[in-house]
Design a protein that fits this description.
There is one protein chain. The protein is α+β, with helices and mostly antiparallel strands and about 100 residues long. Helices cover about 30% and strands about 25% of the residues. Strands 2-3-1-4 form a 4-stranded antiparallel β-sheet. The termini are close together.
């Protein structure tokens, strides 16, 4: 069953250089095999609860693939830049 990785940016970017370095890691590259971007910082409209500053939704074939991607050494190096750049929450949710 598909699973989804959600990254929610909870506040403004506090380190623009770190954010630009994070973005540069994937700029111009095709998505990794098995990863399908569904939303990447598109326009947000809060309809209930507290809003977010930005959101990314990635689709994976299953939860194991999502966890493997997130915990991979390659992504964890990039994640340090994202975490330095702005406050985030991240989730994996299984689909139907």
């Amino acid at each position: 069953m598909p699973s989804y990785m959600l990254f929610i940016r909870e506040g403004e970017v506090v380190d623009e250089a770190a954010m630009q370095a994070y973005k540069a890691c994937s700029s111009g590259k095709p998505p990794m095999a098995g990863v399908r971007p569904l939303a990447v910082y598109g326009e947000l409209e809060t309809v209930e609860g507290e809003g977010a500053d930005g959101m990314v939704i990635l689709e994976f074939p299953d939860k194991a693939a999502a966890k493997a991607w997130y915990h991979s050494p390659e992504y964890q190096e990039r994640a340090k830049l994202r975490q330095k750049a702005a406050p985030y929450r991240a989730f994996i949710v299984e689909g139907l």
